[in-house]
Design a protein that fits this description.
341 residues; alpha/beta; 12 strands
Amino acid sequence: MKVTLKQIAEKTGVSINTVSLALRGMSNISDETRERVVRAARELGYHKQLKTPAGRRNLCLVSTGMHLQDSYFYMEFYQLFLNYASAHGYTMLAMEAEYFQNDPAEIRGRLEQSSIGGILSLGDMKEEMFANLYQSGLPVVAVGARYYQNPVCTFIEDNQLAAHQAVHFLIEHGYKRIGFAGSPLHSIAFSERYFAFRQACYTAGLSSREDDEWLDLMPDQGVAENEKRILARLDSGKPLPEAFFCAHDLLAITMMKAFRQRGIRVPQDIALIGVDYNPMGQIMEPRLTSVDVCCRAQAEAAVRKLIAFIESGTYSAARILLPTVLRVGGTVQDRRKLDRG
């Protein structure tokens, strides 16, 4: 019979979450508690169970159903995770985050049955879902998100750098009135990009206008609803900024489509920069200028770190930022040349 975290918790008189943290070597557990938990786990045969040759060669990718259905950006991440896991002798299973709404002990049992050694979480999910995932007792590495209720190891693109790269590129090409598109309430990434955009404009001496910040555009609403809102703004008759920094590429693509319906040319009448370097933006005409979040580097670093946690039996929380790279397309023109002309 397999030993569970609940049994260890009952033996030591602490919570299941404390047992999980202690067994993973987390720093926010006292030495006395950790020693008591480890001793009880050893007496019950828990550590021997973890080291059985049969298991722990599977990794589990957890993301929301919406993310996993993204046939481009998130599926690219999944394929990269799969490739790196395979190169290190691990296989990869995918589960929707909604699966983790159940009791953590029940979740752990199911993960053990699938010989899961560690978990990769991709993109934002609700804090309570992530808490259940975190309390499963397995090492967790999060990619592209941030969580505040549980100390976790996270890899994410440097969204502040991304915003500064976009704004400075536009300024260098003669743009002075720059708007932002995307709701900062949608995700940690959107929020970081928005506030970094404001900071970049401020430090460059550019004033921000409320009418130039289209903060009611959110991916969860769907393309049709966002397009409707963009068209309503265009039909209001208010003057547009010279350029938009969009919170992600799919939103920039939706804006480009709406602009065309109203006869607004990109980049002649307005410039666009997105974030993600989504393949969809690279088959558009003109090709979208985008800040590349470097999926390959994030995926490789996350898989390597997770496997290191699994094989060393240790765990540590950290937030690791990876640099972004601006990829120049055709949605920005050099306005300085036009002014000289």
